[in-house]
Design goal:
Blueprint: H1 3-17, E1 22-25, H2 27-33, E2 42-45, H3 49-55, E3 59-63, E4 68-73, E5 76-82, E6 84-86, E7 98-100, H4 104-109, E8 119-120, E9 126-127, H5 132-138, E10 140-141, H6 147-153, H7 156-168, E11 171-172, H8 174-183, H9 192-203, H10 208-217, H11 234-241, H12 250-260, H13 268-274, H14 279-298, H15 303-313, H16 315-329, H17 336-345, H18 358-365, H19 371-385, H20 393-404
Helix pairs in contact: 6-8, 7-9, 7-10, 11-12, 12-14, 12-16, 13-14, 14-16, 15-16, 18-20, 19-20
The protein binds adenosine-5'-triphosphate and magnesium ion.
Domain CCA-adding enzyme C-terminal: 252-398
Domain tRNA nucleotidyltransferase/poly(A) polymerase RNA and SrmB- binding: 170-226
Cofactor: Mg(2+)
Length: 408
């Protein structure tokens, strides 16, 4: 058994033995019924946060205002949340407060969709008050209760609906979809960070086009920050997003997304900053964009063009560009096997694969260290990779000496 599931079961058992109700709830129950490996195992219990903390010595209150206590069990982290209902929603985002309750049903009722509103006990019995299991089997995302009210409480739920549609290839129940159209403008109150967490999941899902179809059909997308501030041609962007390729990894899908808005390599940094991407992701997107732009120009890349690109950017961004090229133009100008062979046959792939190091070059050339060292090594790396010279110390030092004279 998954060690996280085992830990969750033992925590539930401990709560049960102390006289409290405790269940697996939410996403993990849905995923177990779908035969998928859950992201996390959440537990809901009738015990109050103080009671939970008393019972587990290795525990700390992580979201006490939401009733969540984090329990350390073996090497695992298990989140235990007290049954609760939510108070007023004042700003379409967060409840003003929560009330702890002793009933499982009340706790499940506050959850967003029927497929996420089921609980399971230690014996595998399902607690399914809103027909979530039937919806799971028919592939339907349906709000718990009155959809419009639920979306007015928390607008993020509408974007989550699109996300679950992308992740599971499910459709949205017509009444739920109608409510999304009705409440679409409320997404403007959401923070970019919360929206991006969902966007990231849509872009990393097996069927991102389904998620975008939902966002575009309901016009939620037209009101989502930060995209409302981007100039975009609805028809073209819609067309591109609903044809998002399925072979790209997440980074490639982000680039496809940016390309849909006619983003170029120069503007990728400002756009990704608006989307709160990490620096690392932003650089990866930038590399893919740069390769993609050059690839489009050369059309039929040969070894002499591709190997330096592979050296400069590495394998991952090139593969992503390949997928994007294929999806955009239906051809890449070179076969996949050919690309892989070029990568595999290169005797070196980075400067540190060379048989000499910078200090050896410096002592042979007899010049003060400076930018010339990096420049010379990278030229040598390219020559070795292209098979022009062998990766042998004496030869590298000799050729390196000649190259170094170019640098003042
Ligand atoms: P994932 O696979 O991404 O973890 P998940 O369904 O588990 O998906 P979480 O964000 O981990 O999503 O939330 C856990 C559970 O909490 C959900 O299954 C749902 O029951 C409930 N939930 C989460 N966010 C909301 C929300 N905005 N409104 C109502 N219920 C929510
Ligand atoms: Mg989860």
């Amino acid at each position: 058994m998954d060690p996280r599931r085992k830990a969750a079961h033992e925590v539930i058992q401990m709560l049960n033995e102390s006289g409290y109700e405790a269940y697996l709830v939410g996403g993990c129950v849905r995923d177990l019924l779908l035969d998928r490996i859950p992201n996390d195992y959440d537990i809901a219990t009738s015990a109050t946060p103080t009671e939970v903390q008393k019972l587990f010595s290795r525990s700390f209150a992580t979201g006490i205002e939401h009733g969540t206590v984090t329990v350390l069990w073996d090497q695992e982290i298990v989140e235990v949340t007290t049954f609760r209902t939510e108070g007023f929603y004042e700003d379409h985002r967060r409840p003003s407060g929560v009330q702890f309750v002793r009933s499982l049903r009340d706790d499940l009722q506050r959850r967003d969709f029927t497929i996420n509103a089921m609980a399971m006990d230690l014996d595998g019995n399902l607690y399914d008050y809103f027909d979530g299991h039937a919806d799971l089997e028919s592939g339907i995302i349906r709000a718990v209760g009155t959809a419009k009210e639920r979306f007015q409480e928390d607008a993020l739920r509408m974007i989550r609906a699109a996300r679950f549609s992308a992740q599971f290839s499910f459709s949205i129940d017509p009444l739920t979809q109608e409510a999304m159209v009705c409440c679409k403008q409320d997404v403007k109150y959401l923070s970019v960070e919360r929206i991006m967490t969902e966007m990231d999941k849509i872009l990393g899902s097996p069927t991102p086009h389904m998620g975008f179809q939902v966002l575009l059909q309901t016009e939620l997308f037209h009101h989502m920050p930060p995209f409302t501030g981007w100039q975009w041609d609805q028809e073209r962007v819609g067309e591109r997003l609903t044809h998002i390729p399925s072979n790209c990894q997440r980074a490639g899908k982000w680039v496809w997304f940016l390309l849909a808005f006619s983003t170029t390599a120069d503007s990728v940094e400002s756009r990704t900053r608006e989307c709160k991407s990490s620096k690392k992701d932003s650089q990866l997107f930038q590399s893919i964009m740069e390769i993609q732009a050059e690839w489009t120009e050369v059309k039929e890349p040969d070894e002499k063009w591709m190997k330096p690109i592979l050296l400069r950017y590495g394998w991952e961004p090139v593969v992503e560009s390949y997928c994007i090229q294929q999806a955009l133009y239906n051809e890449t100008g070179c076969k996949w096997e050919q690309l892989r062979d070029w990568w595999e046959e290169m005797p070196v792939r980075k400067v540190t694969d060379l048989s000499i190091q910078g200090n050896e070059l410096i002592s042979v050339v007899g010049k003060k260290p400076g930018p010339w060292v990096k420049g010379t090594l990278s030229e040598l790396c390219q020559s070795v990779a292209l098979g022009e010279i062998p990766n042998q110390k004496e030869i590298l030092l000799k050729v390196g000496g000649q190259i170094a004279t170019k640098y003042s």
